[in-house]
Design goal:
Strand content: under 5%
Distance between the termini: 40 Å
Largest sheet: none
Shape: elongated
Length: about 220
């Protein structure tokens, strides 16, 4: 899929999200299906943007290499003429004269400096004990927030992780990845999650990407 096709797909996802949001305007209670579809669309839009960005970076690198190659070609064609012109206008070097030896001037004896006073040892300060920190309230709050994110695996991944998992584990198929995440969200244990994966995917579970994916699942049940 080229950049233009990816851009058209991004616009379709944006339009669908706009229509979905307009459908619940004026209501007080939003259906669960709204959030599920909205998360799917935002995940797809993130992957679309990441793909477009990578395509632009590759295009920029290609143009930069072509420009550098053109500059090197121009430099090679101009270098012989420049070297010939420089050699023709190079002035002859005059013979250098041997410098006359001059007697070294006599220097007066320098006075010896007075001995520096011995430094007095600085008094040592006893370290003050650090104030006792509060209980693990902040850590507990962060853990609770992290566990809340892991309840729904679609929200647990960063943009880079989501793009990497989609590309390397699901062959860039967002629909297939979202279907698998929905099934994993229903699993009640890590062992059940592994059985689902072995039944639906053909991965090298020893690879780095698969191991990172399994770490997210394992943290749901810690």
């Amino acid at each position: 899929m080229n950049n233009q096709e990816r851009l058209e797909q991004l616009l379709r996802h944006i339009n669908e999200l706009e229509q979905l949001t307009n459908s619940i305007r004026g209501t007080e209670i939003y259906p669960v299906s709204f959030f599920s579809r909205a998360f799917d669309l935002t995940g797809k839009m993130q992957i679309d943007l990441h793909e477009i960005e990578m395509g632009q970076i590759e295009l920029f690198d290609q143009q930069l290499r072509e420009h550098q190659a053109q500059l090197r070609a121009i430099e090679r064609t101009q270098r012989p003429a420049y070297d010939a012109a420089t050699a023709a206008h190079r002035p002859e070097e005059a013979p250098t004269e041997e410098p006359l030896m001059k007697p070294a001037p006599q220097t007066a004896a320098r006075p010896q400096p007075a001995p520096a006073p011995k430094p007095q040892p600085a008094p040592t300060l006893k370290p003050q004990p650090a104030p006792a920190s509060t209980p693990h309230a902040e850590a507990s709050l962060n853990d609770a927030i992290e566990r809340t994110k892991l309840i729904d695996l679609r929200k647990a991944f960063t943009l880079n992780d989501r793009f990497r998992f989609c590309r390397e584990l699901f062959d860039r198929n967002e629909e297939r990845m979202n279907d698998m995440l929905n099934m994993l969200n229903e699993a009640r244990s890590y062992e059940e999650s592994l059985k689902l994966l072995h039944a639906h995917v053909q991965w090298d579970f020893e690879s780095e990407t698969a191991t990172d994916f399994l770490n997210f699942i394992e943290r749901r049940f810690v």
